[in-house]
Amino acid sequence: ARLTSITDPIKIWEEPRDLGILPFDANSSVRFDRDELNKHSAGVSYSVDELSVVDFLASLANEPTLPGNGFSFTPVTVGEVVRAVRHFITGARGVDGVPAFVIKASLSFFFPLLTKLFNLSFSSCSSPDAWKRSSVIALDKVKNPSSLDDFRPIALLCFFSKVLKRLASLSPNFSPNCLAETQL
């Protein structure tokens, strides 16, 4: 609606830049080094010892289910996994580089395996290390950033970690008030 009221061509092209749809002018006088942005937004760690998805699944094969009558997730069904995957409309690629549309297009082949993987994650109270990683990018908060505080870091998560979180939040045993958002 704002674009319809603008008649100046320069102002028209500024709108998509302000919204982050188009990049800002490459001749801008203020530039920040990638390392500066990273240091300013640091907080995510990475371990070279993390397990691959295959190694994670192998490690679960010999582990017993945790004993006790405490909290547990109800096993998810194939239909719930399909609905959880289809819930997401994002086109962003996570750290794994796999776009959601590839997973959605492959659902008929993968959904039984995904269902088993999500249920193993719930029963073992764990998930593959690769799902815990993210790619952090800095978005401009203002039109012409002049300081590191003018950027907002966002994390692009692995698509499967988003689906796991969605399934966990839909579990009948899950209460949104019992865990902090950061614990999911």
TrEMBL record:
Top-rank taxon of the source lineage equals Eukaryota
Instruction: Check the record and name the PANTHER family matching this protein.
Output: ENDO_EXONUCLEASE_PHOSPHATASE DOMAIN-CONTAINING PROTEIN (PTHR47510:SF3), REVERSE TRANSCRIPTASE DOMAIN-CONTAINING PROTEIN (PTHR47510)
Listed name of the protein: Reverse transcriptase domain-containing protein
| Species for this entry | Bracon brevicornis
Source lineage? Eukaryota, Metazoa, Ecdysozoa, Arthropoda, Hexapoda
